[in-house]
Amino acid sequence: MMSSTQAPDTLAVFDFDGTLTTQDSMLAFCHYVVGPRNYALGLLRLAPLLLGFKFRLVSNVRAKEAFMSAFLGGRSIEELERYAQRFCEEVLPTILRPGGLAAIDAHKASGHELLLITASLELWVKPWASNRQIPVLGSVGEYSNGIFTGKLTGNNCHGPEKVLRLQAWLGGKRPARVIAYGDSLGDKELLAYADEAFFKPWRVK
Asked: In 3D, which of 179, 30, 198 has the Cα closest to residue 108?
């Protein structure tokens, strides 16, 4: 929940993957963790499932959990957090959209409160966002005895879940003005909730 007891006058809400980044951060993080060769081999093994996902025969959650299980499952939370910190320092800066970063700076300069809502795991987004004092609401990984199972705990932060998470974070206190940025069908409900909505605002045409 937000730290303030009162809703901010203006809240700027950003999706992450595809909106602030030029590519899916989950794919980039998995590639970073396992390396190019193991990543390519893993994609070959996952090809049937990914094909099913493309043709909507496999759900978003099932595909995501299978992907994370293949590349990240079995690793300790400490190991993944170390990777996440380095990923945010070494890789994320190369895939962030300059227009998105400029918008973040402009909202901060205007005194607006910021929030990042993403279907990606908070694991590899929070280190970057925390350095910029931006709260994150994202999907959360499941751990058993400190080992990542590759599955999610709670709902995938996607579609209607983004609005539910936002409302819970606000504690029922809607800001006077909500500005939202998104890039996909997974942001449809969030953009509809906002007073001002921007869809794919920084894409090069």
From this structure: 179
CB-based contact 120:17 (threshold 8 Å) = yes
**Is 204 contained in some domain?**
no
- Total-model pTM: 0.93
Provide the 3-class DSSP secondary structure of residue 142: strand
Element (H, E) at 81: helix 77-90
With respect to residue 185, please indicate whether it lies within any of the assigned structural domains. Answer: yes
Is 40 inside any structural domain? yes
Domain containing residue 40: CATH number: 3.40.50.1000
pLDDT of 101 reads 97
Mean pLDDT of the region 79-104 = 97
Residues 6+ apart with CB under 8 A from 12: 103, 104, 107, 112, 113, 114, 115, 179, 180, 181
Number of structural domains (the chain) is 1
Tokens of 122: 């908070």
